[in-house]
Amino acid sequence: MYKKLIYPISFILLLGLVSNVSAELVGQWKLDEGSGTIATDATGNGHDGELIGDPQWVDGYFVGCLEFAGSPDKVDIPHSADLNPEDEFTVSVWANLDPSGSDYRSPVTSRDDYPQRGYIIYCTPENTWQFWTGNSTGGWDGAGSPPVTLDEWTHVAATYSNGEKKLYINGELAGESNATMPPNTAQVLRIGGGATEGAGNYFFVGKVDDVRVYNHVLTEGDIQASMLNQGGAMPKAYGPTPKNGALYMDTWVSLSWRAGDFAVSHDVYMGENYDDVNDGTGDTFRGNQDLTYFVAGFPGYAYPDGLVPGTTYYWRIDEVNDAEPNSPWKGDVWSFSIPPKTAYYPVPAEGAEFVDLNVQLNWTAGYGAKLHYIVFGEDFDEVNDAAAGTPNGTANYSPGLLKLAKTYYWRVDEFDGVETYKGEVWSFTTLGAVSGP
After folding, report:
1. Which residues of the chain have pLDDT under 70?
2. What is the mean pLDDT of the chain?
3. Which single residue of 108, 195, 306, 428 could bond 251 by disulfide (Cβ 3.0 to 4.6 Å)?
4. 8 A C-beta contact, residue 162 and residue 89
5. Candidates 2.60.120.200, 3.10.20.740, 3.90.1310.10, 2.60.200.20; correct CATH number of 25-227?
6. Three-state secondary structure call for residue 383
7. Do the beta carbons of residue 276 and residue 341 sit within 8 Å?
8. Are 420 and 413 a contacting pair, CB within 8 Å?
9. What are 316-330's pLDDT values in tens digits?
10. In the prediction, which pLDDT does 177 show?
11. Could you say which DSSP state residue 260 is in?
């Protein structure tokens, strides 16, 4: 589909609300030189590395690569803040593990051990890939994968975004965890060696090809698209805002994304049904535009009456360039959700067992809630049918000392200043009950 969207002059008032972030491949070492002692940064950013020891130029996954035989073979790339983004990044590498290696072996690392900062990608003695980040408090936090095949090319990619990290093996999610990570602020980025402070450690045994550092997070689809393309090009849209799966606290939104490398314009799809957006059916096609943001939830734009609380919205960006034979490049389907007007995320969770007798009930307030009415009791029907509850100004409630081995029911109705929204009936069972098989 292709039709131009024409924006009224008033749209300029929204420009200040939209972030225009430039995404970059900030470092790429194709390792195709074939000779010499310099590994050139293919991005042109000047992050060239120096070969140390005697790594060998050999045939690689793409063209050429470096083969490492352990200590002291490595490539040292001078420290740069560009290569150590603080909030989010992706690092990827093609690696081929030699069966003779038996220690921790790292194809690429950027870290400082005093205090622990930065990241390590390595294979363990048990031959599993690991992605570790320093926490600056005396330790490292890891995310790992199942065992990998030796003497075979494997693509390893690691992403970090504001405390969330993921490890992908051959383009598929293999492990994830949450951890803070202050960046490496002084030491080299090292190919073929784990520790980057001092002479190093955790040296790699095997072949390494096409090492990359991005200053943003690649999705699984992005990784799959880029891993087989040594040019580093990203044809699809990526970097959605709001983040995919986000809980979004407003009834209007400015969707934004990072354009694919070949895009001239963008086909925008948005709707409330995943399949419709994925297939481009119904009224989900919103037009073709040059801008990398799309406003919804205002008069004159998509969803002019505002986005609806309690609704999940799906959107997709296809990148268009009529001069390219592979155009359009279909994008991933992203989503965000507006919280419901009713209370949600109860604590204790629905159906919880072995709950303390002095429990305090908590919940997440419904969208726009100003007052909460709590109904609490031992009978489901009485709680469900109650006309009104006890008013409370905060999203918590203490029912007092409870009985042993008893199931309790509770409900929270939310008042937003205009209407009251009846909540679900939740339940939990206190300590002393015998759990079922």
Report:
1. 1-23, 114-115, 136-142, 195-200, 232, 433-437
2. 88
3. 306
4. no
5. 2.60.120.200
6. helix
7. no
8. yes
9. 999 999 999 889 999
10. 86
11. P
Residue whose pair of structure tokens reads 């590994």 in the numeric block: 39
From residue 38, alpha-carbon distances to 25, 32, 47, 141 in Å are: 20, 11, 11, 32
Closest to 92 measured CA to CA, from 201, 218, 181: 218
Q: How many residues does the chain have?
A: 437
**What is the DSSP pairing of strand 420-421 with strand 390-392?**
unpaired
Q: Name the DSSP letter for residue 62.
A: S
Q: Do 344-430 and 253-337 have the same topology in CATH?
A: yes
SS3 138: coil
Cis amide linkage into residue 182, ω under 30° from 0:
no
- Rounded Cα distance between 259 and 287, Å, is 16
Which CATH class for the 253-337 domain? mainly beta
What fold is seen in the domain 344-430? Answer: Immunoglobulin-like (2.60.40)
Q: Quick check: pTM over 0.85? A: no
Least Cα distance to 110 among 144, 152, 160 occurs for 160
Q: What are phi and psi of 57, to 5 degrees?
A: -80, 120
CA angle 36, 41, 47 (to 5 degrees): 105
What is the separation, in whole angstroms, between the first and last Cα of the chain?
A: 55
Token reading at 171: 């383009």
Show me where the domains of the chain are located: 25-227, 253-337, 344-430
Which residue matches tokens 């990827």? 92
Distance CA 8, CA 304 (A): 14
Look at strands 74-77 and 189-191 and give their pairing. Answer: antiparallel
Q: Are 237 and 317 in contact (CB under 8 A)?
A: yes
